[in-house]
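User: Working on a comparison across species. This one is Phenylalanine--tRNA ligase alpha subunit from Candidatus Woesebacteria bacterium RIFCSPLOWO2_01_FULL_44_14. Can you predict its structure so I can line it up against the others?
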Amino acid sequence: MQEELNNLKNQAIAAIMEAKSVAELEQIRIDYLGRNGKITTEIKKIKKLKPDEKKNVGRLINEAMSTLAKTLAEQKLSFSQSAKHWFDATIPGEKPALGHLHLVTQAAAEVTAIFEKIGFTRVRYPEVEWDWYAFEALNMPQGHPARDEWETFFINLPEDKKYGKVVLTPHTSSGQIREMERVKARPPIRMINIAKCYRRQSDATHVPMFHQFEGLVVDKGINITNLKGTLDYFGKKLYGSKSVSRIRPFNFKFTEPSFEVDFRCVHCDGKGCKFCKSGWHEVGGAGMVHPNVLKAGGIDPGVYSGFAFGWGLERVYLLKPGLNINDIRTVYRTNLAYLEQL
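Assistant: Here's the predicted structure for Phenylalanine--tRNA ligase alpha subunit from Candidatus Woesebacteria bacterium RIFCSPLOWO2_01_FULL_44_14:
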């Protein structure tokens, strides 16, 4: 029986060393040490032995079981370590997922490129602005009812004696004055200013924080024909050659004459829908720069004239064919499934 035990132990050790996986090791353990295993079966034979043989055979069985258990554990450990540290330098690495620019950033880049092709230069001016730049220099003095339209956020900071209160800029038009100051009364100016604006508004076509792009051209002999040509050029470049636009007389204090600019809605083809409500989608205002605004910027209105326009970037871009977004608030959703498809 002693010889038989030694043979079983050696067979088991050989099988363990030749095993190719943890699953094979587990099967070997069952075959030799399981409830009906080969060595377990030898234990049942001890009761038939003579008293002086039981002790020796019991010691051999315990030794065999201990040796096999230890060998199994070591071999399992070698498998796990091998898997953990295995490395094949010839296999290409897994490339991380790449993101993309947000829709608003894409829109800003496309709008910038369109205007740069006709000589505009993109600038950037403060989002936290003085009341003077946001209103007074734009021909809207303190208490003027025209200010109500902008539903402005005021900042709780001390007023400046010259510039007044601090505001979150309600429109990029404040950049007109800063650009005129920058050129120090020496036009020409061909400016495109794209920045965040803030107003207390929220519905399908408005959000409290949005983006505008402001165009300003100042030079000798600038007239309304130059303005209309620029607007038509932009519409056809962004929306395609079939783009249809219109201008409507309006009243802005910083332009004279003033217009609101509309494009025919692409979502309903001019029939009227939740997005446009009338078949036309207003993108913003435009007009000839008011002489008082030129004076506030240090430019002589007797020598120079200019036009300006300020449009909501998101509102303009949502009309782009194929985009199929009919609620401006969708642009600022944080849902990853939505963002990944932009």
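For your comparison, note: The CA atoms of residues 132 and 163 lie 5 Å apart.

User: Helpful, thanks.
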